[in-house]
Amino acid sequence: MTPRTSAAPSRRALLRALAALPASVVLLGEAPGLLGAALAAAPPSGSATRYTIVPFLNSTDGTVNVYQSDDATDFRLLKSSAYTPPSNRIRDASILRHTDGYYYIVYTTHTWQDTSTTIGFARSSDRVNWTFLYDYPVPIANLSRAWAPEWFVDSDGSVNVIVSCSTANDQWIFTPYRLRATNSALTAWSSAVALSGIGANHIDTYIVKLGSTYHAFTKNETTKYIEYATATNLTGPYTIRRTGDWAGWGSYREGPALVQLDNGSWRIFFDGYGDGSYYHSDSHDTFATWSAPARLPGISGTARHFTVVKETVSGGPALAKNVRRSLRSANFPTRYWQVQSSLLNLPVVSGSSTTAEKQASSFTVVPGLADANAYSFRDGAGNYLRHWDFRARFDANDGSSTFAKDATFIARTGTAAGSIRFESYNYPGDYLRHYSYQLRVERADGTDLFRQDSSFVPVTAWD
Predict the structure, then answer these.
(1) Labelling 165: which of 7, 41, 365, 443 has CA 20 to 30 A away?
(2) pLDDT tens digit sequence for 415-453
(3) Within 10 Å of residue 262's Cβ, how many Cβ atoms?
(4) What angle do CA 194, 258, 304 make, to 5 degrees?
(5) Beta-carbon neighbour count of residue 223 at 10 Å?
(6) Would you say 121 and 97 are in contact if contact means Cβ atoms under 8 Å apart?
């Protein structure tokens, strides 16, 4: 499949300007270091992947919403104004599922123009109802601002918060520090240790660990680009390996957060504060190269600065394998998948259809060629459903890795009872959907119409 292939003021300039104004003017099985990431595989039959975010809003930093998604692309509102702290503000909330089964958020407690020497903590048993725990004074001498705290769970199980801090001698120059929890209740913390090598004037530092290497993504406040650094110790020394527009994300980006998707690739989310959008971009080669940034549908322009918790939960779609099935459109229930000249279309099929038409509308559901938890589909001639130039078609398996990925689809819950949506394995966020009664692979746009057009009901095979 062919890949898809005026300057905003800096945050520091905005902060300086805002500070000068009067106040009245300014309105899961977990893998260590991955913030609750499940293993990289499609969820098994009857289970589902669940991604949760708790962003503050573009319209207010007094509360946060909770959103969830099964594909890390199409986030839907779970609860609005789910948590409002008893005092102060809430910005930059980072979410963690702890070993005690509770969800925790840590967040910035004050808005831009205020001195901010604490970070806040809240807890939830269900991601919907949150309880304030405490505001923690970050133990740094002469502290002016403690911002953008991010959870990091190390491979030894230790729980850390990476927080961007500035001191009174230059309140707009931030350096990343590590706080380590000294008890399992997450109420006591170590002294703050600066991450060496990243250096001053970096903010929003987010870390993942792969093997023995710590990978840090951090915003350079001078250039406004997200930079990439690595180290063999959490506190460094880090070596900054990529600067400037190295990933093609553009400038005026902040708040990077990463999650590993079901196909093993990595997705980064970041706040495009310069243009008012929220973006995501994927890497299939462990951070060396990245896809072109795509605007996050549905919540772009509403959500601000979040991190993601990924879990595998029960209640997902179930589809038996090695069984013949026909696939009916959820919103056009007289229309079914059918092979026509190797292409997959959606004609009307009924009891009066010819035997050939019924056979062309029946498929064998088999384990995914690229992931046995996912799905592939074979027609009566033994050819496999795959995407090519965004079109769904049936071709003979050539044994290549590319073909296997093109022919593999991850099952996501559909809009109607019993319906399933089929996400492209190698183009996360793209789905099989019908358009003009043709089946194509297209990027989810966050609309109900797209969800309906991409929902299909497996039924007894016509043949």
Answers:
(1) 7
(2) 999 999 999 999 999 999 999 999 999 999 999 999 999
(3) 25
(4) 90
(5) 14
(6) no
For 424-455, give the DSSP string. Answer: ESSSTTEEEEEETTEEEEEE--S-HHHHHHTE
Both tokens of 113, joined, read: 């123009």
Q: Which two tokens stand for residue 109?
A: 């407690």
Helix (H, G, I), strand (E, B) or coil at 25: helix
Residues with Cβ < 8 Å from 77, sequence gap 6 or more?
65, 66, 67
Length of the chain: 463
> Tell me, what amino acid is at 318?
A
Which one-letter DSSP state was computed for residue 115? -
pLDDT, tens digit (0-9, with 9 covering 90-100), for 377-427: 999 999 999 999 999 999 999 999 999 999 999 999 999 999 999 999 999
Quick check: helix, strand or coil at residue 356?
helix
Q: In Å, what is the CA distance from 308 to each residue of 34, 100, 149, 453?
A: 10, 18, 14, 27
Residue 319 is classified by DSSP as -
Distance CA 134, CA 182 (A): 16
Residue 305 near residue 91 (C-beta atoms within 8 A): yes
Are the beta carbons of 453 and 441 closer than 8 angstroms?
A: no
**pTM score:** 0.91
Measured in whole angstroms, the distance separating CA 408 from the mean position of its chain's CA atoms is 20
The answer to whether the CB of 299 falls within 8 A of the CB of 54 is: no
